[in-house]
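Board notes (copied after class):
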Amino acid sequence: MAKLNPYLTFKGNCKQAMNFYKEILGGELNIMLAGESPVASQMPSQFHSQVLHALLKTDDFEIMATDMTPNQFNEGNTVHLCLNCQNEDQTRSLFKKLSEGGEVIQPLNEMFFGWIGTLKDQFGKHWMLVYDKNQPL
């Protein structure tokens, strides 16, 4: 089954926030800056110092985060329920079902790590579905 965790979007201070959470909650923190990622050449240079993806992982939970947002930054769309799926088929199936009656924000698309897409369900809740082909659940 898919694994659920929060995915937070920040406005340029993701690294600071995630280090703050690590100090308080413990765990292992990994941060990938946009300029150090496999998609760096596809992004304007002003985004290179921003966090593309951060993961704070403990034995009990994971918090993921970014400075990147495809839409205008509004406090109401800065928290997503992130489903980490086990394979591409599960990702596609869950995305289709959750988006029925809702709104696809970012269609499922293949990235360097696997698949990702975001949607707002029929109840107005924001979801992110991810399949990381290099990260077994």
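Comment from the instructor: The chain has one domain: 3-132. The two ends are 9 Å apart (CA to CA).
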